[in-house]
């Protein structure tokens, strides 16, 4: 039996996407949490917790997009055509967030509020757009032959917009638990108090999406509740409840690291639920990874480069987080 390069590349794309959601999720979440904290010193501390690593986090977004383009060009063409508007809005949000991140430290006191608003707006815009993209992918695409044939605004549905709200809550939860891990004293207490309502709101959203998705999409209904798929899917909601209970318990005992680790587990479980819903289709509802794949020669050539560059990314990512480990102090930070 030969090596299935399509499965290998699908795994790489899934891994890169998950790494991006986790890593860029908590720094986008910090921008989302800015409106809940007006103290300028604490805002600087919030930003300083991610200052050494935020731009490197977006490496995974670039890797995932490049891998999709090279390994599954049909999927890249359909998805970028169908979702051109939300993807463009996402990029605009990321640009505003990045520019505001740099400029707010250089701005005068008079101009800093503007850059704070740009930081907040860019974070909300990028996150909400990513949630809309996620909802649109779950809903599927109209494809005729090898071309997207649906309307330009097919992504603009109540379900996709609700997924956008859900991702905003998820990233805010990642941001608050990251700050619990990285800060002390008053900011630590504020984030601990904010995390519980964020978690409860996210659980409500997860429950609604879990009911809405199979009701809206008959193919997903069959996939979830047919045997033996039901046995594969059933542990996911049970584990979500167990992780949520553990997170609430960690907040009660004022833990520092456990809330963030459990939030990562919650995100991973949600991502697993998505994978179960669409596998093996890379263009839902019906085009599989093998139908959308590029020639094996192309995938093999790319894999050589991938096996060289991915370990490098992992090493420098680990090293940067290791070097800047520990709590942030008010007098330490980005200049």
Structural descriptors:
335 residues; mainly alpha; two-stranded antiparallel ribbon; two-stranded antiparallel sheet; 14 helices; globular
Summarize, please:
The protein has 335 residues and is mainly α. Helix content is 76%, strand content 3%. It has helices at 5-33, 40-48, 54-57, 59-71, 73-82, 84-106, 112-139, 158-182, 185-216, 218-225, 229-233, 235-252, 258-278, 296-323, and strands at residues 143-144, 147-148, 281-283, 287-288.
Word description of this protein:
The chain is an all-alpha fold and 335 residues long. The protein has helices spanning 5-33, 40-48, 54-57, 59-71, 73-82, 84-106, 112-139, 158-182, 185-216, 218-225, 229-233, 235-252, 258-278, 296-323, and strands at 143-144, 147-148, 281-283, 287-288. It is built from 14 helices and four strands. It is globular, with a radius of gyration of 20 Å. The termini are far apart. The model has no long low-confidence stretch (mean pLDDT 88).
Distance between the termini: 56 Å
Provide the β-strand percentage band: under 5%
The biggest beta sheet is recorded as:
2 strands, antiparallel
What is the overall silhouette? Answer: globular
Number of helices: 14
Spell the H/E element sequence: HHHHHHHEEHHHHHHEEH
Helix content: over 70%
Q: Count every beta strand, where a strand is a DSSP E run of 2 or more residues.
A: 4
Q: What are the low-pLDDT stretches, counting only 5+ consecutive residues below 50?
A: none
Assembly level: single chain
User: Which class do the helix and strand fractions yield?
Assistant: mainly alpha
User: How are the strands ordered across the major sheet?
Assistant: 1-2
In angstroms, what is the radius of gyration? Answer: 20 Å
């Amino acid at each position: 039996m030969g090596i299935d390069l399509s499965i290998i590349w699908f795994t790489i794309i899934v891994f890169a996407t998950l790494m991006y959601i986790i890593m860029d999720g908590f720094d986008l979440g910090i921008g989302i949490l800015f409106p809940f904290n007006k103290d300028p010193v604490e805002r600087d501390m919030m930003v300083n917790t991610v200052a050494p690593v935020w731009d490197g986090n977006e490496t995974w977004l670039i890797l995932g997009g490049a891998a999709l383009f090279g390994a599954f060009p049909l999927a890249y063409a359909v998805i970028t055509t169908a979702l051109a508007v939300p993807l463009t809005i996402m990029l605009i949000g990321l640009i505003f967030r990045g520019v505001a991140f740099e400029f707010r430290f250089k701005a005068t006191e008079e101009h800093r509020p503007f850059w704070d608003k740009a930081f907040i707006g860019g974070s909300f815009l990028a996150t909400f757009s990513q949630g809309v993209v996620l909802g649109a992918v779950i809903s599927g695409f109209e494809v005729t032959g090898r071309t997207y044939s649906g309307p330009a605004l097919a992504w603009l549905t109540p379900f996709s917009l609700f997924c956008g709200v859900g991702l905003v809550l998820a990233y805010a939860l990642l941001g608050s638990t990251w700050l619990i891990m990285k800060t002390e004293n008053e900011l630590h207490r504020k984030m601990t108090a904010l995390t519980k309502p964020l978690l409860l709101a996210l659980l409500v959203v997860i429950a609604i999406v879990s009911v809405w998705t199979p009701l809206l999409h008959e193919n997903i209904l069959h996939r979830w509740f047919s045997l033996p798929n039901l046995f594969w899917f059933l542990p996911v909601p049970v584990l979500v409840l167990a992780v949520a209970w553990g997170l609430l318990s960690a907040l009660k005992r004022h833990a520092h690291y456990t809330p963030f680790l459990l939030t990562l587990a919650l995100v991973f479980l949600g991502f697993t639920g998505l994978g179960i819903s669409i596998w093996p289709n890379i263009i839902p509802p019906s085009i599989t990874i093998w139908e959308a794949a590029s020639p094996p020669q192309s995938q093999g050539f790319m894999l050589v480069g991938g096996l060289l560059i991915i370990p490098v990314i992992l090493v420098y990512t680990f090293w940067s987080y290791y070097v800047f480990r520990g709590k942030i102090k008010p007098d330490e930070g980005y200049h």
